[in-house]
Structure formats: structure tokens, C-alpha cells
Amino acid sequence: MNITTWLRARYPQLFTESRESVVIENCLCSMFSEKRKKEETILPRMSDDFDKRLMNLLENEKIEQPAETFSTLRNLFENRNLQYSFSAVMVVTLAFVTVSRLNKNESTLNESAGVVLENTSYLNEPASIDLSENYQRRLLIDHIKKEPGSIDGLRELELYYQKTGRGSAANEVHFLINEAEN
Amino acid sequence: MPRPLEGKNMTLREKEKILLQKIKAGDPTAYMTLVSPFRERLFRKAVSMVKDSDDAEDIVQDALISGYKSIKNFRAEAGVYTWLYRIVVNKSKDLLAKKKRGREKPMDDTGDNQFVDEREGYEKKLELSEESRYLMDKIALLEDSYKQVLELRYFENLSYNEIAEIMECNVGTVKSRLFKAKEFLKHLIQKDDKGEGFFEK
Q1: ipTM of the assembly?
Q2: Which residue among B106, B133, B162 closes a domain?
Q3: pLDDT on residue B84
Q4: Domain presence at residue A35
Q5: Chain A: nearest CA to B69, how far in angstroms?
Q6: Which CATH number goes with the domain that contains B134?
Q7: Has this prediction a pTM greater than 0.90?
Q8: With contact defined as beta carbons under 8 Å apart, do A22 and B31 qualify?
Q9: Which of A42, A111, B9, B142 would suit a FRET pair with A149, their CA atoms being 20 to 30 Å apart?
Q10: How many angstroms separate the CA atoms of A28 and A13, rounded?
């Protein structure tokens, strides 16, 4: 079944019906209607005492009890409200996860200098300072300028970062060296 | 005898719910009230299948007793008619299979041969117009599932949901089977010489 046929079968209201389909539809309606009417006239009727007979038989019958565990499980699984609740919870969870993923604003500390112990608590210290902050940048560059030997140390560090594939850290260090030398 | 349920403003569904509660408490009169609107329709279905009124009456009786006994398995969202319809169809099929097995066994000329005669007699009595007869012959060429879906939709006037319940499939499958049944029918008529002019109305 190709996609068009499938769509026509599922959503016939979206398509205009061909002349043949309309004729078939009308013929089916009138044929079955005619058959129903004719059958009503020729088919035999139920016997008059059917109800009485059935009632007598029913009075001697007992309603069967469904197996307890089976019925409880079936009721649980067939409970529409429960099914809808599960679906709703899943949709809300999915929406929450999607929104959280899309609005990921928190900064990621990919590189850190490790942990330092301060007042018996471990703190995760970032490897780099925020160089977009003018004050911090100026303070650090002044400090490097005062210690010319530190530039060599920084070059070594830049090289090390480049070798170990930490490009962003190497760029930061390179930026600091340039600022300190100018 | 079944008595009408009091309370004129109640919907059919509400009436059914009240009756089901009573039946589950062991009230057979409530059961008679619940099933009485469908008895004749079920009987006609059984007759159309087994072609014998006595057998059909026995089938309906058995089906209604089975329905009463297993009423606790009846799901409230299912329709009473579709539920009973399935029981009647299954019992009719069982009887037909039993009779077929009986016919296959060596036997003398009497007995089950009568069944064949009754069946033919019934078909003959149903005198439809030429056009309806032609369409019915074409429907007879379709696969059983297509014949069934057409009958449930156009003869029984059932909704897609009810048909899905009887055919034990989903509503989408019902729609596609119905669509395909009509497409096949259209194709059969188009390629038939006698069908010339059928669509020129």
C-alpha cells in the first residue's frame, strides 16, 4: 500500500472522492438496505416463549467470578485513566528534558585547576580567570609585567596546552603573554 | 418478561451501567432488559449464518446464557451489542464447522443433507433487484475480512469503533480494510463486461 492509498484510507475527508467511489458507496448503502428489508420479511421470527425459556434458564445459572489476580491486572492495564496519566507524565518529562537541554545557560567548567582545601571544604577552582572582566585582566597583566620570568613560564605552559590539545587554554595564555609584552 | 428501566432522562449509557450493576448482583431480569433490544438482530445474524431458525434460536439462547455467566468479564466501554454479536458469530461458526465435519463423514442420504437444501432455499427467497444481486455477487468474490467489514458497516450500521471491537483490530485497520474493500469492488466491476455502465448513473 503506497502512502497516498494509506492516506486516502485513513483520512478520506482530505481527498475528493472519485465518481466511481461515490457510486459504489451509494450502491452499497442501497443494496444492504434492500437486503435488510427483504430479510426482515422472509426470515423467521423467534418463538414467542423464547424470553420465558431464557428467563427460566438464567434463574438456574450463576455468574462466573473472574480470576482475582487476572482481573486485577487486567483492570489495572486496561484502566484508561491510568494509561492517560502515564502518557501525560511522559509528555511532561519529555518537554522538561527538551526545554532544559535547549536553555542550557550554566557555564561549564571544562578545565579546572583541581581542588583546594579551604576550611575543611573542597572547592573546585577554575583554571582560568574571567578575562572579560577588565579589572581582573589588568591586575593579572600588571602582575606578569612585574615578574618578567613568568612570561617564560607562561610560554612553557602555552606549549604544554597546545601539545595536550587544550586549545582554548593555550589561546588564553597566549593572549596574556601578548598583553604583558606590549 | 423484561421491564423498561425507569428514569426517562437517563442516557442509554447510564441505563446500561445501572443494569450492569444489577446483573452483577445476580438479577437475571435486569439482564433480560439489557439484551432484549438486541435479541432479534442477533437472531437474524445467526439465521443468516446457519440458515436454520431452530439452530439460530439455540445459538442466541446459548450466547445470551454465556453472556450472563461471564458478565463480570464485560468491559463497560465495550458495547453490549458488539459483545453479544461476537459470541453469536463464534457460536454460529462452531455449529457450521460441526455440521461440515458431520457432512464430511460417510453417511446415508438423510440427515445433514437437509441443511444444504435449507441454505439454498434461503438464498433463493432473498429476491434482490438485479443491481443489488450483481453487487452482492461481486462482494462474494472478496476476501472474508473485506466482506465482513462491508457487512458490519453497511448492513449492521456499526461505527468504526464497534467494528474494530468485533474484528479485534484498531480503528485505522477498519478504515483501511473498508477502503480497500471498496477499491477491490470497484476494480472487479470495472474489469467485468457486465459491469459496463455501472458507474454511468
Answers
A1: 0.75
A2: B106
A3: 92
A4: yes
A5: 4
A6: 1.10.10.10
A7: no
A8: no
A9: A111
A10: 19
